[in-house]
Amino acid sequence: TRAIGIFEDLDVETREGEVEPGDVFLICSDGLTGHVPDHDILSAVGFQRSQDVCDDLIATTLDRGATDNVSI
């Protein structure tokens, strides 16, 4: 919903919290979250190599008829 480089002022959403051992971060575009719900993303993360998780999530998004670009 927000693109970098479109407007002069950047509106960044941030969250703060403790980082624990084993935490995993996935940074993605709304092209992913528009087609794959959070619980599906959560179940995919942490059980495979990071690249495999990204490849699988992108494939799932495309299989579900991606209507936007998807970046992870």
Structure description:
This protein is an all-alpha fold and 72 residues long. The model has no long low-confidence stretch (mean pLDDT 87). It starts with 29 loop residues before the first helix and ends in a 9-residue tail after the last helix. The radius of gyration is 14 Å and the shape is flat. The protein has helices spanning 30-33, 38-44, 50-63. It contains 3 helices and no strands. Helices cover 35% and strands 0% of the residues.
Task: Classify the secondary structure makeup into a structural class.
Answer: mainly alpha
Shape: flat
Number of helices: 3
Mean pLDDT: 87
Task: Please provide a brief summary of the model.
By secondary structure, this protein is an all-alpha fold. 35% of the residues lie in helices and 0% in strands.
List keywords for this structure.
35% helix, 3 helices, 72 residues, mainly alpha
Present the secondary structure layout.
Layout: H1 30-33, H2 38-44, H3 50-63
